[in-house]
Amino acid sequence: MEAILRWMCTILLATLAVERCQSQDLIGPSPANQGVLRDGTHTLTCSKSAEVTDQLSWVDDTDGGGILMFLGLTPISSADKYKNFAVVSNNAEELNLVINTAEVEDDGVYICQIAGTSTQQQVTLKVEVLGSPLEITPMDGDRVTVTDGETSNIVCTATGYRPVVTIEWYHKMNGGQESQITDGVTQTEETNPGDSDLFDVVSTLQYTADKGYNNGELRCVTTGQSAAQSQEKITPLNVQYEPIVNVQYGSDEVKCSSDANPAVPEPNGYKIIINNTDVHTPACVESVCTLPLEVDYDTDVRCNATNDVGMGTDTTVAIPGAVITTTPSPEPTKTTKPGGGDKDAISTDAGPNVGAIAAGVVVGIIVLAVIIALLVYFLVIRKGNKTKNSQGSELKPVNGSGGDSSKPKDRPTPAPRNSKGDAHDNEEGKKKVKPNDNPDGLLYAQLDHSNKPARNSGNGNNIIRTEEPTEYADVKTFIV
């Protein structure tokens, strides 16, 4: 059956037969691309099926010339290139090509073939060179130092590698997951000045720092070699950022602290400003700065903290009797960096202060309550006075303590008046009420009518005629 299949392969379906015969009769080296370290030893394997009686051979097809190196175990070419080449076989079905102490010149394309046929498989061999350990620059001691929000050029160099490698970049937060950086990466390759068979690769990363990666890691790694193990360089990340400030007021004290890299120098790096005018340097203990402050009214308080990167600020409102809470302060507003203005200058671009708004609402409620209390107080007092007067006072005749009000006794005679209605200085028209005239301490009123003669009713009472106007009325009130 196999003889018939072989006959069909060679006679009826020549092109297809070659591929099928290769898969059945020849097992060549795998994978098709392999590597060997310089000065190392590498073996390319090849075998045939037991039914194939023809010998196996190895051919060098690097330059497309098809140079026969070995036919079975017999060396054919005496070229200097093959002085470190050999073939080994453990049985009649295999023939393996061994490259000892590999050199760069051993790079090439090699073919394992069934002699006298077109049945063959080829492999491309690369002689690899593992160069020097990777280097990252610039370094700040044992770490890379960058500034939050700013872009820096960081370089990873691979020296003396073969073939040309590709350098990849990764970073991760402190304790977080690693992620690859693909943006801002450029790579250049140059021939190594000491060995023209080797290459120097320089990868430049334009890295925009984020303070979230402070105390994280930055890593560069080589790819593109199969025999050589990938090389990598890991360095800690030191991301510097301006202070994130928190200020609070309570118990007659201002407290100010910050999160910053580098840390804010104490105490001179802190300034506490009262009502945008009075600047104070607080006392600091273990990164917490305090300033005693007693207030009688709502007072604006600002804390500025400055390090080598810039200045951060936070504000609050000092309210009399307030206690410190754990409410976090809002994100600080970025201000000018050192050299760009007065470090202690008040920032005018800070956002709305929640504490100030809340304090304003509280003050408004207190003022409204005071106004309502005062109104209620005056209304109650006024009503009480009216009630007292209406219950404790009675109009009585001047010279009487009771009896028939229709018969007044010894009513005072009103003083004569001039044409303007003013009273003349007439001693007879004046009457003084002495304290003992009113033992009950009551309120008395006396109404005098003048200008028209009174008409007697016949029973001793004077009558004022309503059809005639009364031009003068004199009311005298006595409180005894």
Structure description:
Helices cover 13% and strands 38% of the residues. It has three helices and 31 strands. The protein has helices spanning 2-11, 14-25, 354-392; strands at residues 26-27, 33-37, 42-44, 47-48, 56-60, 67-71, 74-75, 85-88, 96-99, 108-114, 120-128, 135-137, 144-147, 151-161, 166-172, 178-181, 185-191, 199-208, 217-223, 232-250, 253-261, 270-274, 278-280, 283-285, 288-292, 299-306, 311-318, 443-450, 455-456, 462-463, 472-479. The strands form eight sheets. Strands 13, 15, 16, 19, 20, 21, 24 and 25 form an eight-stranded mixed β-sheet that branches. A hairpin with a 2-residue loop joins strand 6 and strand 7 (74-75). The radius of gyration is 56 Å and the shape is rod-shaped.
Question: What structural class is derived from the secondary structure elements?
Answer: mainly beta
Task: Estimate the helix proportion, in percent.
Answer: 10-25%
Nearest-angstrom radius of gyration?
Answer: 56 Å
Averaged pLDDT? 78
Strand content: 35-45%
Annotation field: number of helices: 3
Q: Tell me how many strands there are.
A: 31
Per the principal axes of the C-alpha atoms, what is the gross shape?
Answer: rod-shaped
Major sheet description: 8 strands, mixed
- Poorly predicted sequence stretches spanning 5 or more consecutive residues: 1-23, 332-352, 390-439, 441-452, 454-480
Distance between the termini: 152 Å
